[in-house]
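Final report, Chapter 2: Outcomes

The project's central promise was a pipeline that accepts a single protein chain and returns its three-dimensional structure in a standardized token representation, suitable for archiving and comparison. That pipeline is now operational. To close this chapter, we reproduce one record exactly as it appears in the project archive, with the input sequence first and the structure output second.
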Amino acid sequence: MDDLHKLKARQDRLRRLQERSHLKSVPNSIEGNRHLTGEVNTDFHAYADVTQELSKRILSFDASATSEEMNTLLDEITKEIDGDPKGHILEPVFLSLIDGTMRAFKIGTKQGITATRLYSECKSFSYDTPSKSSFTLDSYTENITERQNIAEYDATSSYGNGELTRGDSQINMRDGKKMNDAKDGHFDGNSTAQDSYGGEPIYSYKKHAKSEGQSNQSAETDHAVPCNEVCNKLKANKGLTDNDIKEIVNVEENLVVTSRENNRGAKVGKFAKSQPQLEQEIKQGYAEDKNGKRTELTPEQIEVRKNMVNKQNTAQKAMDSETNKKVADNLVNNKNVQKKLSKDAVEAAGHQSIGDAILFIIKPIYFELQDCLIKGIEDGVNASSFKEALTIRVNRIKSFAVSQIGNELKGGVFSFMKSFVSMLLEGIVNCFVGVFKAIARTIKEGIKILMQAIPILRDKNASSAQKGDAILKVAAGSLSIFASIGIEAWLDSLGLVEPWSILISSVLTAVLTALVMHLLDKMDLFGLKKEARLNRIDEILALKVEDTKDEMLQMVTVLA
């Protein structure tokens, strides 16, 4: 019985369990249950759609910039590109003051070491990127160096009493044959002729003049430009031989037939007076003898002096032309002249190579001293003691020297050749005189500009605008030599001589050059600043895009 009840009870439980195991239909009368039968709840999907929510946030994102923000950004870019105009002008001028002092007192001039070079190369030095020095000595310093060479050569020569001494040779500068020929040509067989300087007629023979009571009107051959003036100018010219100078002194235009009175009269004789002295006498209306005694000049005598000045001008042009012809011929055909110029150029280039070596040593030492002052002796190299820091710094200098010595030697050979060519050209230029010297200097500066332009043109990382702008500034800097020499000549005319003329000329030239460079920057002929601004704007926009991407990713992370 008990077993029967248990069986029935188990059957009842199984029946109830079977009834509960089947799903019953969902009542449609309850709100929301209809979606369980297959109807889509669009409102729920819209709420749960992260992409749509993100799109809304992106569309509502404020990416606009105010005009004030844009102007501020453009101003910052302009300041960044233009830099500080005071630094562009004041810095070169201050450095030029030191450069001028070094030039004036011949400190490091031959080695090509200037304050400007020291500052620029030490400032840009880094162990990570040791820049290859493409330094080219400025033309004014080259000119001063060559003038030192000329002065040393001039010290071995002298002129006095018609004799020119150069080294071991001595030669009389008066060419008696040419002077007699000039006199004979002037009289052309006649016993009297007009004075080349004007005034009363002159007599071919002294006896004839004496017989006429005109002893002071006997004819003499004079050098329009005095021998001592010509010889003292040309004896230092390395492009001329002794005989060349003699021929130049006695060029036809410089031989003038005049009276004894005009040539060496006690009161109004020309003697060896220069053009400025004659012009001064014309202006003041009287002449002075060697003792300072004055003699009033008559209108006729003043006219004679004007003619003397005119003859000197004519003679000087002829002598300049003859000098340039002989220099040009000697440069091609005279081995002694070639050897002399080459020797000086080699010595000058050698001195500049020594300067390069000195700077090679100075730059890492300067870097370490600067690093010690800014970061500290130990902290700058993460050392625990002074001894350890000193060892690290010394080893760093040694490692740099060992690793870069090969490149320095290769660059030194090229630098030596470049300096040799430039100094040889400077020596040649200073052998010429007059207008042709200015033409020769222009050609020399053109060659120098070309030598500096070649590395710029070969730079594959620079744009056309950058190359054009760099070459333009190289040309402007090279042509400043004309301003330097002109200012120095003007100061000399005012009575301000070396070393002060060199010092002041250096400063004034630096001011002028700095202003020209600043003007070229403002003009922006090659659109370099425009290109730089556009590149900078592109960089800033690229950074803004990256920042915006980061913000969007942060929003996605928050929504996730």
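Archive annotation: Residues 73-105+466-560 form one domain.
This record, like all others produced under the grant, will remain available to the consortium after the project formally closes.
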